[in-house]
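Form 7-S
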Amino acid sequence: MHEPGHIVCALADIADVEVAPAPEAFVWDLAASWVTIRVRWWTDRRRADVVRVRAQVLRAIKYALDDAGIDMPYETRVALWHDQTDSVDGDRSRQREGWPADPADPSEPRWQARQRRRAAKAASASDTDDDGFDMSC
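Output:
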């Protein structure tokens, strides 16, 4: 089974798939990690028959692929996990993107950075009046 024509052959054993017009299979898309093949067949137009025959067709295609030694692809995802509470998150030049922090340039947790800024702001506010003017001697 190296071409869509073999998929069409798998439909020949399904009694409710019409012989005329004949089933068709097309290579529809060549993507990064899969090939999309569209299969078209005809059957009785009653909805119950269409649903039942579709299930039979999909099962026949799956078995035909298995018999040919073609594995169905498994979805693969890559997730980078990191502490998203660093004070540098959002700063694209310093953000770690899931890699361990550089010991020479450690970042601090966001809560510590926020606490440090609040303390600095509070210390600065005590040296100014209500209008923000420096009142220190």
